[in-house]
Design goal:
By secondary structure, the protein is an alpha/beta fold. Helix content is about 55%, strand content about 10%. It has 3 domains: about 50 residues, no CATH class; about 170 residues, 3-Layer(aba) Sandwich (Rossmann fold), CATH 3.40.50; about 80 residues, Helicase, Ruva Protein, domain 3, CATH 1.10.8.60. The protein contains 15 helices and 6 strands. The protein is elongated. The N and C termini lie far apart (about 65 Å).
């Protein structure tokens, strides 16, 4: 039961239009009810706060020079994501479990909310985080990993603690991109004592976290990550280069009204094999711009071929170096 002081704080916050204070006190009451075994009431209070936050207009966060977290406005929908059937099921499960987390909680289970995304650059990891934020009506917070790492002893750990404090206080999607920088194998040759300590701290923080936020870490290579990390995540989503069927769907999605029945054939699909989702999307965008500038209603086969070859040449030149 709420204390008299908490009731007074709630009423005061209401009449002073202090939404943040109101939310904080409500969550404190929910935490207390959970501790004394009133889990259904506790979850109901959390859900009410969550619903109110989702219905509010997302506030803009003015990034500071030394800001560790920036907010990104997400408009990507599930239909924007072209992935394998297995990945699609995993993403659907994350969405379903979050939306029905009260039902899971009543039966003693927690929704999967600590997710590791693994795959090559441009295969949809960041887009997946954005899609989850849109579908779940949650703000998307990007953790600035490059600002997290400090040359001063102990400072990185302090910053990491601040991030997890934010995760527990403000419900949202928290996206750790390029997670390799803090999640590298502890026994690696380039390991230093400070990074060893930071990784241990991260393992502690993520294991202790009981918030309603969803934590997403993304890496280009899971082989670089410490094996202890995998046990802390509820699910691992592996992203691969698109299959021929996914490439066809990507063309249909990205070319849209600029695609005729003759624009895409098997030769073009085969040409796109080996490119990531982002490169195919960029090739489509460049082909559409060329069609518009030449007053064409549709993208031609030759045009899309040319743009795909351009993307491949970029990688060939990089490999030559």
């Amino acid at each position: 039961m709420a204390t008299s002081e908490q009731l007074l704080s709630l009423i005061r916050a209401h009449y002073e239009n202090d939404n943040e204070r109101f939310k904080t006190v409500a969550l404190q009451i929910a935490a207390h009810e959970s501790k004394i075994g009133h889990t259904v009431l506790a979850q109901s209070l959390k859900d009410m706060v969550m619903k109110q936050k989702a219905n509010q207009i997302v506030r803009s966060i003015k990034p500071m020079d030394n800001s560790l977290i920036t907010q990104r406005i997400s408009k990507s929908r599930k239909s924007d994501l072209i992935v394998s059937e297995k990945l699609d099921r995993q993403i659907n499960n994350i969405i379903l479990e979050f939306m029905q987390r009260s039902k899971l909680s009543r039966n003693g289970y927690i929704n999967r909310r600590k997710i590791l995304l693994e795959g090559l650059p441009g295969t949809g990891k960041t887009l997946t985080a954005s899609v989850l934020a849109t579908e779940l009506k949650l703000p998307l917070y990007i953790v600035q990993t490059d600002k997290l790492i400090s040359k001063y002893m102990g400072e990185t750990g302090t910053k990491l603690r601040q991030i997890f404090d934010a995760i527990s206080q403000d419900i949202g999607i928290y996206f750790f991109d390029e997670f390799d920088s803090i999640g590298a194998e502890r026994s690696s040759d380039n390991d230093v004592k400070e990074m060893h300590r930071v990784l241990n701290l991260f393992l502690q923080f993520i294991e202790q976290d009981t918030s309603d936020s969803i934590i997403i870490a993304a890496t280009n290579s899971g082989r670089l990550l410490d094996q202890a990390l995998f046990r802390r995540f509820d699910d691992v989503l592996r992203f691969d280069l698109p299959s021929s069927n996914e490439i066809k769907k990507l063309f249909e999605l990205k070319l849209n009204k600029f695609m005729s029945s003759k624009t895409i054939n098997q030769e073009i699909i085969d040409l796109a094999v080996g490119l990531c989702h982002a490169d195919i999307a960029k090739a489509c965008e460049n082909a559409i711009k060329q069609a518009i500038l030449n007053d064409k209603k549709y993208v031609s086969q030759n045009n899309i071929k040319e743009m795909l070859i351009e993307r491949k040449i970029v990688y060939q030149s990089k490999e030559a170096k």
